[in-house]
Design a protein that fits this description.
The protein has helices at 2-11, 15-30, 120-130, 135-142, 146-160, 205-221, 233-242, 252-270, 279-289, 297-308, 312-328, 334-347, 351-362, 364-373, 378-393, 400-411; strands spanning 35-43, 46-53, 58-59, 65-66, 71-82, 85-98, 103-106, 171-180, 184-191, 197-201, 226-229, 247-250. It has 422 residues and is of the alpha/beta class. The strands form 3 sheets. Strands 1, 2, 5, 6 and 7 form a 5-stranded mixed sheet that branches.
């Protein structure tokens, strides 16, 4: 900066000309929209760039432009650092009575968001880094508090999230992820076609899902063709009322998980009869949970031994594998296959599988729809894994609103443009 000032002074005969040349240089470097550089001051806190607005009329945050000034004040916004010095934008800001809001409002400036004390460029860079690093690291890099980074993320996400993200939804999935002990959950709704989170709420799961359909409206709710979910009655009840035309698809992962639990129940009841002790119990339980095609030679011998003895445990394992084939194989008539499996499970007289068969019989349409439409909650499970990474990276969150903002930022399809890429 000192070299730039010396160069300008050496090329201009007067101090007034030097000021003009420095202002021109800063205009080119900063490219502040809607304003031009009037004066540059070197202060103990950094470089202060005084701006002057080009527009004479005031612009309300609601978008209305009007004339008539109520009062004036001078405000500073922190901009991107200039080398080792902090850079501040300073301008006179006005207040006036907005004809639309019918109250005194502070005018909106094009280089900063409403209510912010940082420029848009500064906030965009901070948010871009917050997508990829924890807030403490970003705060250390920019020399601010992590609470400042948190407020910036909330402001930028609110600026990017609008109602248009709910347009064109046809196939959605809903799931919940815990964010705190004590059964505290965040409900997530994702678009199966784009993979983006379109709704996140930390309300009660049923209330959160209902709020999603309230925001969606009757017309867009009528466009929903399919909803994937687990077997939670809360989600199923809301979907049946808000979008009765949509086919409910129960996630295959949760159904196979129930089948594995049924096999574990049978195994626990016969483990002593098989003469298993200690670690052998754990190892054999793992064998029965694994997919049949992934078993090793020794593991297959154990299954063949159960078959030779016509053991009830083999029948339980076989029912589990046949249920996996319902999702794994390309069946000519999936409905007929599922009906025959339910019949075999009911006739097996294995209590755990009888209960599972009764459940699948009650939820027959939702189980069948998942196969016919090829939908599952695997995309939601992937989003849940990313949410876990966000939680670990942030070492927890003081408020669920901050977590929801980070979910939108990382998983909501928000693209933050860096000032150098515009």
């Amino acid at each position: 900066m000192l070299r730039l000032a010396r160069f300008v002074l050496s090329k201009t005969p007067t101090l007034e000309g030097a000021i003009v040349r420095v202002s021109t240089a800063f205009n080119k470097m900063l490219a502040i929209p809607g304003a031009w550089v009037r004066e540059i001051t070197f202060s103990p806190t950094g470089v202060v760039v005084e701006l002057r607005r080009r527009a004479r009329r005031l612009q309300c945050p609601c978008g209305t432009t009007f004339s008539g000034t109520y009062d004036r004040s001078v405000r500073r916004w922190r901009h991107l650092d200039l080398g080792a010095s902090r850079l501040w934008l300073q301008a006179e800001i006005r207040r006036g009575r907005c004809p639309s809001c019918r109250r005194v409002r502070t005018e909106q400036v094009p280089w900063a968001r409403p209510g912010a004390r940082h420029s848009r460029d500064f906030e965009d860079v901070v948010t871009w880094l917050a997508q990829r690093a924890d807030k403490t690291t970003v705060a250390t890099l920019f020399g601010c508090a992590w609470a400042t980074v948190d407020a910036i993320v909330l402001r930028v996400v609110a600026d990017h999230i609008d109602d248009s993200r709910l347009d064109g939804l046809y196939r959605i999935g809903v799931d919940e992820v815990s964010y705190r002990r004590g059964h505290r959950f965040v409900t997530l709704v994702a678009d199966h076609d784009t993979g983006a989170v379109v709704w996140a709420s930390y309300q009660d799961p049923a209330r959160a899902f209902g709020s999603f359909f309230d925001q969606l409206g009757p017309e867009r709710s009528a466009q929903i063709q399919a909803v994937s979910m687990d077997m939670s009655p809360a989600f199923r009840g809301v979907a049946s009322v808000a979008a009765p035309q949509a086919r409910v698809c129960f996630d295959p992962f949760h159904i196979i998980k129930r089948a594995n639990v049924a096999v574990d129940t049978v195994f626990s009841s016969v483990a002593q009869d098989l003469g298993l002790r200690g670690r052998d119990v754990t190892r054999k339980r793992v064998v029965l949970r694994r997919a049949g095609e992934d078993l090793s030679r020794d593991q297959r011998r154990f299954v063949v031994m159960l078959r030779r003895k016509r053991h009830v445990l083999f029948r339980a394992w076989l029912l589990k594998e046949e249920l996996r084939d319902f999702y794994r194989l390309e069946l000519a008539d999936p409905a007929d296959y599922l009906k025959r499996w339910i019949t075999r499970a009911l006739r097996s007289k294995i209590l755990a599988f009888v209960r599972l068969a009764q459940l699948l019989k009650q939820r027959f349409d939702g189980v069948l729809a998942a196969v016919e439409l090829g939908l599952s909650n695997s995309r939601l499970e992937g989003i849940n894994a990313r949410v876990r990474v966000i939680q670990r990276r942030g070492y927890g969150f003081h408020s669920p609103a901050a977590l929801v903002a980070m979910i939108y930022l990382v998983c909501g399809g928000i693209t933050v443009q860096l000032p150098t890429r515009r």
